[in-house]
């Protein structure tokens, strides 16, 4: 294991900290703007024109896709903090700033690793992909077992050999096929290793090939986690290799040797949560917080698709960011009885790292967080479609909070709610893939608002001009009114007794 801490990047947290201190000391800073009209709330402050302007700024090419742990994520985070300051929100991060810095650890396959099949020398990240960065050293005969059916396996002894097979399986349609693909490869590879194989080589069939071209960029990066997390552990295991469909003919040739030497290395990078607040007006309730959650990072600059190498993440999750900014603007104009706490989580795409870190290191007492309303991908699909994650058991941890959101939808938002994606048997496991999850695990009432996946998800086509900003505005108002209700009711929303997730 090579532990390379990026010492040259240590100036970044200090520089941004100094910047935020200067911002926090601007004249007149921290004074919420008074609402022009004495209305019950500041819903009129949430405007599509603001949302569209902020969306094109944050999801434009200038921030280069805001990859977690990169300078681009940090630069976008400074921009967001500056917008929050200009709106009149107060800093609620560390040391009187808008920022809470943390480190993420990346573990990847080294450039010195080697992979040869017969006379073919393959480069990880170009010609082939190893599914998990783990130490391995294998030199064994390669046998091809067709599609790996029981009849195929009965014809050959795989013990002590590397096994190659063609991926086969229809699986669920559309986007869910991706999770079926990775899940099947991992499960079947484990079965073959238990039967004696020293390595497993998957060759894409026609459906799998499109995902090989589209999704393997994530495998180039390796694994990420908070330092000391499970994904930072270096271990040895039988390698699982994924090849394109063009390799099928030569992989079938008999008498080939599989040689694979894999080494891994580890790096630490800085990432950041952006934390702001609007103090409440009630002398007692202002010490409690309604937390509005989102994440600012995406995939950054990756392999070009149709000539575009910037994976902008306009829906994932600039849409959630600009909605949350609009909600902050509304609370700054008219605060609620409880305080509003706004958190933009860093490195969500790396495994919910920013929200996991914040739950373990909150900048307000954890028990003072009344509820979490998370915005995750809210700008695509049919204009009247949406979903609440955490609406139904076993994902529902607060009936009070869910009912508040449903009541606003019935009277104001009028979305047709999809309930399938919140079910535990849904193949995407969507509930477990956004920043409300660490809060729910900590028994904080938490839900997420989303308009679900679409074909441009995690591709360079997720551009700002494809976002329905009118829909984002409607959902921002829905989240705001739900949060306004929670902020002003006499009693806190409650956690359901016996709440327990299925995993």
TrEMBL record:
Pfam families, sorted: Peptidase_M28
Domain Peptidase M28: from-to ranges: 273-479
Gene Ontology biological-process entries: proteolysis
Signal peptide: 1-23
Keyword entries, A-Z: Carboxypeptidase, Hydrolase, Protease, Signal
Keyword Protease: yes
MF terms (GO), sorted A to Z: carboxypeptidase activity; metalloexopeptidase activity
PANTHER family noted in UniProt: METALLOPEPTIDASE M28 FAMILY MEMBER, PEPTIDASE M28 DOMAIN-CONTAINING PROTEIN
Protein name per Swiss-Prot or TrEMBL: Zn-dependent amino- or carboxypeptidase, M28 family
Organism of this sequence: Spirosoma fluviale
Organism taxonomic ancestry: Bacteria, Pseudomonadati, Bacteroidota, Cytophagia, Cytophagales
